[in-house]
Specification:
The chain is globular. The protein folds into three domains: 209 residues, Uridine Diphospho-n-acetylenolpyruvylglucosamine Reductase, domain 3 (2-Layer Sandwich); 83 residues, Ribosomal protein S10 (Alpha-Beta Plaits); 84 residues, Alpha-Beta Plaits (2-Layer Sandwich). It has 13 helices and 18 strands. The strands form four sheets. An eight-stranded antiparallel beta sheet has the order 14-11-13-12-16-17-15-18. It has a five-stranded antiparallel beta sheet with strand order 4-5-9-7-8. It starts with 28 loop residues before the first strand and ends in a 15-residue tail after the last helix. It has 410 residues and is of the alpha+beta class. Helix 7 packs antiparallel against helix 10.
Length: 410
Amino acid sequence: MTVAAPGPERPSERSAGPERPSERSAGTRREAPSSPEEAAEVMRAAGDEERRVQVRGGGTKRSWGAPLRGGPADIELSTERLDALIEHNEGDLTAVLQAGVPLARAQKAFAEANQMIALDPWLGEGGEATIGGVVATGDSGPLRHQYGAARDLILGITFGLADGTVAKAGGNVIKNVAGYDLAKLFTGSFGTLGLVLEVVMRLHPLAGNRMTAVGGSDDPDALGRAASAVAHSPFGAESLDVAWSDGHGEILARFGGAAPEAAATQAVELLGEAGLDAQRVGDDEGLWERQRQRQRASDGTVVRVSGLTSALPAVLRSAHEADASLVGRAGMGLSWVTLPAQETSALVAVIEDLRRRLRPFPCVVFDAPSDVREKVDVWGDDSAVPLMRRVKARFDPYNVCNPGVFVGGI
């Protein structure tokens, strides 16, 4: 597929800086376009008027990122009517979905063909999270261990820019090398480059039977050894997670396919050799739903740590020192640390101390009360900001799309 270039530059007398026009109308106007063309027109009008646009999918991750610059958005653009599952190519293991399709609904449709999108983040109490929101925030769950993140599963994208341009990149097949990989660029960009309209996703066969090996210990070093042993084993875990709370931790290794029992049994032996008290769990969905849910905290504070697998014991100790609980991808170095509720200044101090302890690993604040978000840099690491600013300027030179939400105030 071809990539359409962003539209022509606007008149030079317009300011590209962060200041908003003083005549901006009070309040937020809500728009819910029902087609890519309608959405592009909303974007074009917002760009012409230099109105700030905030995109809303299912609303499950609306507070993520830094606070929107200048207060509430001028326009909230909802994708609720862009909710069509356009194509499901069973033979090619691909699908084309509009951004507003709830991921839970898409998974139910694909399951009828014994297929799935290998993304399993927490989807909200009612399964509200949309495929567009999951892609835009780069969200993921335990399946990331085997299948990778959203950026590894997206094959193509259609997006709208602030000048009304509708652009496409990527393709509808797994092997595609045409053009720049803008699909990966938009994944995890938090809506700061443009509006995701449609995505082409790679599908995978849906695993049949599943079984989990679980090993527990109070020793972070033992947990680290166990995670490394399973990660480097030939058994091929579908998911490899860690959990920590109240001074006790667990390693969870899930296996699927025709005969998961044998692999789970071997994993139990590895966990035991590392010093863990281990067992097999057959009806295991509750364990993994717990892992997904504990990546979020509706009223609390969650810090995602992106480290190395070898640093797991250090991350566990840091969480313990902060009296925090933790879940994460034990084979990938990703951890979500949930801090205990406390006064705002104390929470800010704990976040900064966690960053100091774990430097140079990025520690990003995802869920947090609004007063905490206002007093701490939620992103922390800004080493790539100069490059990101150039990318932002190319796609959204007038700061229409989610201004200030991304790293470095982008």
